[in-house]
Automatic annotation (TrEMBL):
Lineage of the species this protein comes from: Eukaryota, Fungi, Dikarya, Ascomycota, Pezizomycotina
One Pfam family from the record: CVNH
PANTHER family given in the database record: CYANOVIRIN-N DOMAIN-CONTAINING PROTEIN, CYANOVIRIN-N HOMOLOG
Name of protein: Related to Cyanovirin-N homolog
Positions of the Cyanovirin-N domain: 2-104
Protein species of origin: Phialocephala subalpina
Length: 105
């Protein structure tokens, strides 16, 4: 299950995603995950399974979009030529909630 369906108080602090997530009993649990440890930058594009995107990023932000409140990571990432490129990544595609904790799915 995508984490954002059970998330409250979702925010980004630096490259760390923080939220209150419901566990299997419905209780609220404070959770966080450093996106910098699971997302990389490949020539100005985010990619899952990488790391350290923040070292080549500016204007990192979190946006909640659409009727489904989809969490989107946005930033300007440096490409191979050193130019800043607008990039975005739907965090709901690969982040889940496992008993009140963030997990990759």
């Amino acid at each position: 299950m995508s984490f954002h369906l059970s998330a409250q108080n979702l925010r980004l602090e630096g490259s760390t995603l923080i939220s209150t997530l419901a566990n299997v009993e419905g209780q609220e649990n404070d959770a966080s995950i450093d996106l910098n440890s699971i997302i990389g930058n490949e020539d100005g594009r985010f990619f899952w399974g990488g790391a350290d995107f923040a070292s080549s990023a500016e204007n990192i932000s979190l946006s909640i979009e659409g009727g489904d409140n989809v969490p989107v990571l946005r930033a300007q990432l440096r490409n191979a030529e050193g130019e800043l490129v607008d990039a975005d990544l739907n965090l709901g595609e690969r982040l889940g909630n496992n008993d009140g904790q963030f997990v990759l799915i």
